[in-house]
Amino acid sequence: MKPIIDHVQITVKDMSVAVPFYDKLLPLLGFERNQRVHTVIKSHELHVLDYTHPQLGFTISSPREAFADDTICRRKPGALHHLAFRADSREEVDRFYAQVQAIGAEIVAEPRLYNEYSPQYYAVFFKDLEGIKYEVVCDKPEEA
Predict the structure, then answer these.
(1) Taking the alpha carbons of 80, 20, 135, 126 in that order, is the dihedral positive or negative?
(2) What's the rounded Cα separation, in Å, for the pair 59 and 48?
(3) What is the pLDDT of residues 16-28, one digit of tens each?
(4) What is d(CA 101, CA 42) in angstroms, rounded to the nearest whole number?
């Protein structure tokens, strides 16, 4: 087996806040907005929005009613700490940075080299409107 992720499902706090944001964010990452599926499964207290791409499925879903008032904390056991998307170049990271700022994401750290990870690790870190952390990274030498 190859260590390839098929899909990721993220539970968001409020679908009415998350859906408009992810409709703007995911096309920046290569997803087509018209390639999404919306489902409500009442028996599971589940509202789901699947964004599909040939290389990765990305799903946002509502919390169970019992957890609706919980705060998002990436350091809780079982929580997603952050999710990183790979860019082909530092220029792509920089372009993404400008685009993600324009849609209202919270920039955690502007694009820069992170020598503590590797000498060529160039990344931007940001959070969605509810505080879920993401990264876009290029981990290869700068092109001459």
Answers:
(1) negative
(2) 7
(3) 999 999 999 999 9
(4) 35
pLDDT tens digits for 76-125? 998 999 999 999 999 999 999 999 999 999 999 999 999 999 999 999 99
Provide, for the chain, the percentages of residues in helix, strand and coil under a 3-state DSSP scheme, each rounded to the nearest 5: 25, 35, 45
Tokens 């599971």: give the residue: 44
Domain boundaries, the chain: 7-67, 83-139
Chain centroid offset of residue 40 CA: 22
User: What's the predicted TM-score (pTM) here?
Assistant: 0.92
Give me 115's structure tokens.
């020598």
Angstrom distance (rounded) from CA 79 to CA 85: 18
- Contact (Cβ atoms closer than 8 angstroms) between residue 137 and residue 122: yes
Domain 83-139 has CATH 3.40.630.30: no
Tell how strand 7-11 and strand 57-61 pair up: parallel
Residue 127, amino acid? K
Nearest to 27 by CA among 7, 61, 52: 52
Look at the domain 7-67 and name its fold: 2,3-Dihydroxybiphenyl 1,2-Dioxygenase; domain 1 (3.10.180)
Q: Do 7-67 and 83-139 show the same overall fold?
A: yes
